[in-house]
Amino acid sequence: MKPSYPKYENIWDPLPVLVFIEKLYPLENLPLEKLTTKVVLLIALCSAQRCQTLSKIRISNIIKNEIGIDIIITDIIKTSAPKRQQPRLIFPFYKEKPQLCTASTIIHYIESTKSLRNGEDFLLLTTKKPHRPANPQTISKWIKKGVKL
């Protein structure tokens, strides 16, 4: 009598966002705001993690190897529970399209923001002075802004 319907009627197409991200290249010529937007969008698209998880990424927990980078989240997040594994984000190098390579973009972002960190270990920093670790609400705004462009 009451048939079930899917929760969503349509599926979001990420292609326009990928085209926008692809245009943000070469990385050396990007201002901090656009570089940060690119890093956040790539991590969000490739990992499908919550903004809270993205805000907890620490540089000390990023392991670079010949295949790509591994990021281990050690802080407590919403999905944390006893005997449950913490998220582990794995981003391989994407040599076919370096414009869309999450691993190399993260590495470049770390190098570009080294002078702004003042000993700060969190990966994502705010784009305006004083540069502090970005909170989940700020990261959410960056993602919304990047998706609208």
Automatic annotation (TrEMBL):
InterPro entries assigned: DNA_brk_join_enz
Record's protein name: Tyr recombinase domain-containing protein
